[in-house]
Amino acid sequence: MVNPQGAARWRGLPPDLPAACAQLVIGMRGLKDRSGLNLTELAKATAISKSSWERYLNGKQFPPRHAVRGLCRAARQSEDALLAQWALADAAWSGRGHPVSSRSDRTSPPAVSIDPAVPDGPPATTPFVRPTRRALLAASALFNEHPMRTAAGIFLLCAAMVTPAAVLHASRATTLPPAPRPPVCRLRSCEGRNPRTTACEDPTTVASHTAADGTRLEIRLSPGCRAGWIRAWPTHSGFRIEITGPQAHPRTAVGTARPVGKEVATTAMIAAPDPSNLRACYYPSLGRPGRECFGGTG
């Protein structure tokens, strides 16, 4: 067939192109040639890039439906026939139509020489892309038509995906600390226990006293365990400390060795339902009279 005046001399289509797709490309080429538009004018008229039209018309990329409609509008021709061809090609390419015949049965247009005046790009050796990339191609075509709106849509989509993740991360970061452990003993169940090895983790000093010989003493209380004891920093050996309280057995500690440095002496624990009734006494020397006492009120 003789091309109309000014028609492009087209590159041969890829040999493995399905027959329905090849017929669609031939129809699009013919419509473009009859319109008298070159690729630059066609790109401007359809708002689709020139490089995209080169791929569509050389069989290197499957044309989206809106591109076929845009070509018909630019050529001022009815779109019904070409859209019907597009539907058949789309079904063949995506595998929804009847099985495509073997390569030897496909109809391919004869190869013609290339018109140097029409830049058709590199040789058409790449077949139509696989269906897994169809969404990317559609997005590319949409971006070519509406770059600003497409970019804004992508930004909003990313924000919608990131925001829930940020909220989840913030909720995890503000998780309340674990609740404190319950005390291992309480009131009478603490009596006789060593305060240094019993996990009563909230002790406070409710009263303190410094004896005449310089020994410093404190009445310690654990509100959680509701138990008390004496803590002392003796200055010599041979002393005795005792803590008493109502409805509790007295607890005594005797120092028989000379303290080293800031060594601490403690009594065992007693029940302390009312810390103000706790009473501590210090006996500076065993076998000698004299004592110094103070209570839980200071």
Automatic annotation (TrEMBL):
Protein name: XRE family transcriptional regulator
SUPFAM superfamilies the record matches: lambda repressor-like DNA-binding domains
Region (Disordered) location: 95-128
Single GO MF annotation: DNA binding
InterPro entries: Cro/C1-type_HTH (IPR001387), DUF2690 (IPR021224), Lambda_DNA-bd_dom_sf (IPR010982)
